[in-house]
Amino acid sequence: MYEFTHHAATSVADAVGALGEGKFLAGGQTLLPTMKQRLAMPGHLVDLGKVAELRGVEEKGDVLVVKAMTRHVEVATSALVARAVPGLEKLAGMIGDPAVRNRGTIGGSIANNDPTADYPAACLALKATIVTNTRRISADDYFTGLFSTALEDGELITAVEFPKAKLHYAKFPNPASRYAMVGVAIVKGADGVRVAVTGSGGDGVFRWSEAEAKLKADFSAGALEGMKADAAGMMSDIHGSAEYRAHLVGVMARRALSES
Questions:
Q1: What's the CA gap between 189 and 205, in Å, rounded?
Q2: Is 60 contained in some domain?
């Protein structure tokens, strides 16, 4: 690990003001390992761990607000989350292992936008709003590619707002990392059916429009029988070919609806 300076922020304003050319540190589940491997070398870290205003879950009308520094384990065990957006707590409980869930945060996960992370699928399927210190961004506009988002330099995620709806989610995890080789999130909401896929897309999380059209007419696992995604857009690596992942997308979509 390269040498760096550390600033423990006490407020959002303090964190943004202290950032300079550095990086925000949330749970550290991605940034710290990459620094240890010398794949990243920020000279300055602004630690968000003591920023109380960035923690917690609350209900605002028809919206569930999950603040950015809320840990995965807190979402997974929240009765409010289970009531307001049933299924989101189940997704959070699938992330990594207990060590990761007790350190990782929703804001850190979404800011990193790892193509195999779980939360991006939930955000896209639920049509969430990502709230920052300067603006509000629709999930449809936020995820822009592999490890890429609409965040600008110095912009800090403060919360994620989820419309109240039932989330159906299933994933096929890598047995070692527990990252999603394929994860499918499905939501039937006021504006129709949305199906989001993580873990498999060559350009990151994406909407599966063909499945959405099928489920609009018949919202059941049976409506997706025999369907698979287009392999041309799938990721291919040592863990699974593009064809294998395309098949798994269909399997996980059907499982999401039949098991939740």
A1: 19
A2: no
Looking at residue 113, its amino acid is: N
- Residue 72 tokens read as 């995965």
Cα–Cα distance, 143 to 115 (Å, whole number): 10
Q: Which helix (H) or strand (E) holds 90?
A: helix 88-93
CA angle 8, 14, 15 (to 5 degrees): 60
Q: CATH number, domain at 184?
A: 3.30.390.50
The pTM of this model reads 0.94
| Beta strand spans in the chain (E) | 5-8, 23-25, 44-47, 57-60, 63-67, 129-132, 136-138, 143-145, 148-149, 157-163, 167-173, 180-189, 192-198, 206-207
Domain that residue 34 falls in: 1-47
Q: How far is CA 30 from the centre of its chain?
A: 13
> What is the CATH number for 24?
3.30.43.10
Query: pLDDT digit of tens for each residue in the chain (260 aa)?
Result: 788 999 999 999 999 999 999 999 999 888 888 889 888 888 899 999 999 999 999 999 999 999 999 999 999 999 999 999 999 999 999 999 999 999 999 999 999 999 999 999 999 999 999 999 999 999 999 999 999 999 999 999 999 999 999 999 999 999 888 999 999 999 999 889 999 999 999 999 999 999 999 999 999 999 999 999 999 999 999 999 999 999 999 999 999 999 87
